[in-house]
Sequence to fold (163 residues):
Amino acid sequence: MTRIVGIDPGVQCALALLNGAVVEFNDNTMVKVKRGASQKKEPEARFIANALRRWAPDLVIIEKVHGFPGESIAAVNQFMRARGICEGVAAGLGVPYELVEPARWYKDLKLRRGDDASRLRCLELWPALAGELEAKNTHNKADALLLALWGQQFVIPGHPLFG
Fold:
């Protein structure tokens, strides 16, 4: 069975392992750091690396986050830094990874738009995760799981490593 990890490197970086019917989450990935005069949360590479070592995935799917018109430079920088940390950890561990634009995986999985769409879709597909995805603020975990599902359905079948 192919073990796939999805990573949503957003404001609250979340990881999800999809290993056949087994689903695991890890959203204990953040630390507070001082940036200028304020405290910011950002992904901690060691925490992400520990999760990937423990799970030993065959493939990692990382959401290719980017800035949107009207977003502050600081917010865009935070997203890009988080994405870079996730890419660097996967590359450093020698785990194959793919980047996917949010619009692409949303379209391929036929998701509606909105913060809660991914969480609701996960609950349709995996009703046993209701306790884990009960709160609306768990959409990052749901995104990570759906990214892993996208990898299973759209990357693995045509990928040269898994053919």
Summary: The first strand starts at residue 3 and ends at 8.
